[in-house]
Design a protein that fits this description.
By secondary structure, this protein is an alpha+beta fold. It has a domain of about 60 residues. About 25% of the residues lie in helices and about 20% in strands. The protein is built from 3 helices and 5 strands, in the order E-E-E-E-H-H-E-H. The strands form 2 sheets. It has a 3-stranded antiparallel β-sheet. Strands 2-3 form a two-stranded antiparallel sheet. A hairpin with a 5-residue loop joins strand 2 and strand 3. The protein is globular and about 45 Å long. It starts with a strand and ends in a 14-residue tail after the last helix.
């Protein structure tokens, strides 16, 4: 199993059975380190998906990434907190 951190607001469907949660689907802000949602999935599913999507902008810009443990994913998500997806809400002054 790997912990996938995702900053894409509504998450990503990996296949028919597995969907990685996005931050808009997590109500408790304390469960969104750096604005990422964390989902634990089988590592073979992650590796297969990553191989197909390794050149995608959202992978290259670390809007979605995986770590061996949930704690490692949370730590990296906090470090990547300034990553922008371009889908954030506009702030009106």
């Amino acid at each position: 199993m790997v912990a996938v951190a995702c900053k894409i607001p509504n998450g990503v469907r990996f296949n028919q059975d597995i969907c990685v949660t996005g931050p808009m689907q997590v109500e408790d802000p304390s469960q969104r380190p750096g604005g990422f949602a964390i989902t634990v999935i089988p590592d073979d599913v992650w590796e297969e998906w990553l191989e197909r999507n390794k050149d995608a902008t959202f992978v290259q810009k670390k809007m979605i990434f995986a770590r061996a443990t949930e704690e490692e994913a949370r730590t990296e998500a906090r470090r990547q907190g300034k990553v922008r997806t371009g889908l954030e809400q506009n702030r009106v002054a």
